[in-house]
Write a structure and sequence with these properties.
about 850 residues, alpha+beta, OB fold (Dihydrolipoamide Acetyltransferase, E2P), Phenylalanyl-tRNA Synthetase, Chain B, domain 3, 6 domains, 7-stranded mixed sheet, 5-stranded antiparallel sheet, 21 helices, elongated, EC 6.1.1.20
């Protein structure tokens, strides 16, 4: 919000010697952010001159220039070259003399041009920064000015004013006005403040003839779309009258382009009071005004010349001919104020914020009006705003206040908030006594009554952001000074911290990073082919979730696997010359249940914690989102070194990563051969924990890797991390370290080739009993000496007792007990 200082001084006592930096400091002290300093950048001698005479001189390039003699209040006229053709002898103009600097910067000096020495420049609107018009110079008579020759034109045109620009957060819509920021300056400095919103409106006789109907049959969230609608009329206006220079300069500093005196007045009052105003040409209205919702696909051409197709949620201003404006957003072209307007209908209203915000976004039509309505406009200022417009049109446009008008006002029910006396101090950490709290709350406009426990506070109508005692405590801290809030780190309550699942996920990420893998993050959006190719870690065939408003139409589905993101990351790195890759990612995947429809139009209540039923509805509207972990290896996992060849990535690399994950989670992850569409046949394994499928590991099929431009072997693995954590023991107790030596033995057993080694290993573990400390698969042999369809699995066994040194016989007995279980289950036999 840009605030011209001359305008600010009308409503609050700003010291005459206060600089823009002083004003900034005062506003920053109450929570605003400094943005920029806005000025006209005009300095030096710029005065009023009178054109005494001129000679028109045609040039070789076809241009006609005027060699002017201009009286600037000195003893002799100055000779000035001017290319404009819109002035006559005797006209008073604005003259920039040598030494002046105009916006650009553009310094003025006496210089020879077109065969003359031009001793200054006659200025246009654009050259002074007062607008975009560059068709001719300023004729002061057309601006309603007749100053003395030699008068300082900088002060005359208001270009000596300056505006401070502050950032207004969305919850403080009241500050999008001079009224609001003047009040904030007064809060910060203690200066006297005169509220311009307290002007008394003129009375309009009941039943004065203007029909107004509110017919909102489709309220948003059950709230009426309009809470106040005031209509006043002004007759006999002259739209050709110039906008006063003080108003023009203030509008420009505030970022509003002057568009003619009638529209300038409505914009001026909007900036002053924060209530957007709309003016209608009364002679173009058909009948009275009706406020209603649009019919679906109804049409309206707005002031920007665009025909818009309306939604049934759009709130309209209509007359008997149909729509004449999008309420709170932009007016329609059929009733706009023009050069031939003589009678004006002035509208000042308060609209429901959510309805206006939805309409502005639906039509991609942000406006100064919608920006204020969607943040909340004072519902009690419309009368004062309408009256202010009427008064200015009478004063500046030569109109007469009409007796026709009407208004509709719903009863305003102010909120009452109970504020315990010690609440603000306990929350903020600063001692606030009762008198200080009451004084601050009254300064911001609240009604305050003392109670036995504290205060009963009624927020002002212009502060819809104050809804509870926390809001009041924030206001007390803000006005008293945020610099007084101590920097004290709060003491966390005992028993808090990461959950078991969060701790396990962090252990997994830390362990993989320590093992040399690099963590990546990818977007959760994929195409349909990727979801079908990689599926999910559990291998189920659930459908994918399609996004209704996808950011990228080539990837409109939510991912069911992390592998597509890792493959895309690998492709991007290879394209940039990084060939050796060890990557991992942890993140959510989206696995909808077959036959369940997700999504809901349910809107939970605002400014309140949703109930348990509300939360259940919200959770039911989204698909399950388990967290997975995935790894990818490509290139070399160990580079070539002196005396040692490079070690290429492969299935073993992915299996090592799976072991790292299992150790971090605290589970044993078994691998059994499987088949998956994206994986190389014979190099794919299903991962299981306690007999439950939790993921897969393998090498990408060469065709799949080739389509992604990945060269060589690419090993991948993906694991349902949440499920693995759930299957892990809730508590792991470390056993004592035995001081006795271990006994090691190997055993080779012959089993059917299709039998998973993990099943054989489990049988050995069960049969060997408590003496078995560790078992590892060290060889898988198939070939000469074995029947077709058989394989030989060699396991390294390590035995240890806690209370004695084991004998070889004891170790052998335990080993053979394990072999016996394998023989019973699978027909295993010891290899000869």
């Amino acid at each position: 919000m840009r605030v011209p200082l001359s305008w600010l001084r009308e409503f609050v006592e700003v010291p005459a010697d206060a600089t823009p930096d002083d004003v900034y400091a005062s506003l920053v002290a109450v929570g605003f952010e400094e943005e920029d300093l806005i000025g006209f950048d005009v300095t030096g001698p710029v005065v009023v001159g009178r054109v005494e005479s001129f000679d028109a001189e045609p040039q070789k390039n076809g241009k006609v220039i005027r060699w002017c003699q201009v009286d600037v209040g000195e003893s002799e006229p100055r000779g000035i070259i001017c290319g404009a053709q819109n002035f006559l002898p005797g006209d008073k103009v604005v003259v920039s003399l040598p030494g002046a600097v105009l916006p650009g910067p553009f310094p003025i000096s006496a210089r020879k041009t077109y065969g003359h020495v031009s001793d200054g420049m006659i200025a246009s609107v654009k050259e002074l920064g007062l607008g975009d018009d560059h068709d001719g110079i300023i004729r002061l008579a057309e601006w309603g000015l007749d100053p003395e020759v030699g008068t300082d034109a900088i002060a005359l045109l208001g270009v000596d004013d300056v505006a401070v620009d502050v950032n207004v957060t969305p919850d403080r819509g009241y500050a999008l006005s001079i009224r609001g920021l003047a009040r904030e300056y007064a809060l910060s400095t203690g200066a006297a403040f005169a509220d311009p919103g307290m002007r008394e409106p003129a009375e309009v006789a009941p039943g004065s003839g203007f029909a107004l109907t509110i017919a909102d049959d489709n309220p948003i969230r059950g709230q009426q779309g309009v809470t106040q609608f005031v209509v006043r009329t002004v007759n006999g206006v002259d739209p050709s009258r110039p906008t006063p220079t003080w108003m023009r300069s203030r509008l420009l500093l505030a970022g509003i382009r002057p568009l003619g005196v009638l529209i300038d007045i409505t914009n001026y009052v909007m900036l002053e009071l924060g209530n957007p105003i709309h003016g209608y040409d009364a002679d173009r209205l058909t009948g009275g005004i009706t406020v209603r919702r649009a019919a679906e696909a109804e049409k309206l051409t707005t002031l920007d010349g665009v025909e818009r197709t309306l939604s049934a949620e759009d709130l309209l201003i209509t007359d008997d001919s149909g729509p004449i404006g999008l309420a709170g957003v932009m007016g329609g072209s059929t009733t706009e104020l023009g050069d031939d307007t003589t009678n004006v209908v002035v509208e000042a209203a308060a609209f429901e914020s959510v309805s206006i915000a939805r309409t502005a976004r639906r039509h991609r039509l942000p406006s100064e009006a919608s920006k204020r309505f969607e943040r909340g406009v004072d519902p009690l200022v419309a009368h004062a705003a309408a009256q202010r417009v009427v008064d200015l049109m009478v004063e500046l446009a030569g109109g007469t206040a009409g007796t026709v008008g009407t208004d509709l006002t719903y009863a305003y029910e102010p909120l009452s908030i109970a504020l315990p006396e010690t609440f603000a101090a306990d929350l903020i950490g600063v001692p606030y006594d009762a008198d200080l709290q009451q004084r601050i709350l009254e300064q911001i406009g609240c009604g305050v009554a003392r109670t036995e426990t504290g205060f009963a506070v009624t927020p002002p109508s212009w502060r819809p952001d104050i809804v509870d005692k926390w809001s009041l405590a924030e206001e007390i801290a803000r006005v008293d000074g945020l610099d007084k809030v101590p920097s004290i780190l709060p003491t966390p309550p005992s028993g808090r911290g990461y959950t078991r699942a969060q701790q396990a996920r962090r252990r997994v990420a830390d362990a993989l990073a320590a093992a040399g893998l690099v963590e990546t993050i990818s977007f959760p959006f994929v195409d349909e082919q990727s979801n079908a190719l990689y599926g999910s870690a559990s291998g189920d065939g659930a459908p994918a979730v399609r996004i209704a408003n996808a950011l990228d139409q080539t990837a409109p589905f939510l991912r069911r696997s992390l592998i597509p993101g890792l493959v895309a990351t690998a492709h991007r790195n290879l394209a940039r010359g990084v060939t050796d890759l060890s990557l991992f990612e942890t993140g959510a995947v989206f696995l909808p249940e077959d036959g369940v429809t997700y999504g809901t139009d349910f809107n939970p209540p605002r400014a309140a914690r949703p109930s348990d039923d509300d939360l259940d509805r919200i959770h039911a509207s989204i698909p399950p989102q388990p967290r997975h972990v995935a790894v990818l290896f490509a290139g070399d996992v160990s580079p070539k070194q002196p005396g040692r060849p490079a070690e290429a990535a492969g299935l073993a690399s992915a299996l090592d990563a799976i072991r790292v994950i299992g150790a971090a989670v605290g589970v044993t992850i078994d691998v059994a051969q499987t088949q998956r569409v994206a994986l190389h046949p014979g190099r794919a394994g299903m991962l299981t924990v306690a007999g439950e499928d939790v993921g897969y590991v393998g090498e990408l099929h060469p065709d799949v890797a080739g389509e992604a431009d990945l060269v060589g072997r690419v090993a991948i693995a993906e694991l349902d991390l949440d499920r693995a954590i759930a299957l892990a023991p809730s508590r792991v107790t470390a056993g004592p370290l035995s001081t006795y030596p271990a006994a090691t033995q190997d055993v080779s057993v012959v089993v059917p080739a299709e039998l998973p080694a993990a099943d054989v290993r489990a049988a050995l573990v069960q049969g060997a009993g408590d003496l078995l400390e560790q078992v590892r698969l060290v060889d898988d042999y198939r070939g000469q000496g074995l029947d077709e369809g058989q394989k030989s699995l060699t396991f390294a066994l390590r035995f240890r007792a806690e209370d004695r040194t084991l004998t070889a016989a004891e170790a052998t007995e335990a080993k053979m007990a394990g072999v016996a279980v394998a023989e019973q289950r699978f027909g295993a036999r010891i290899r000869d």
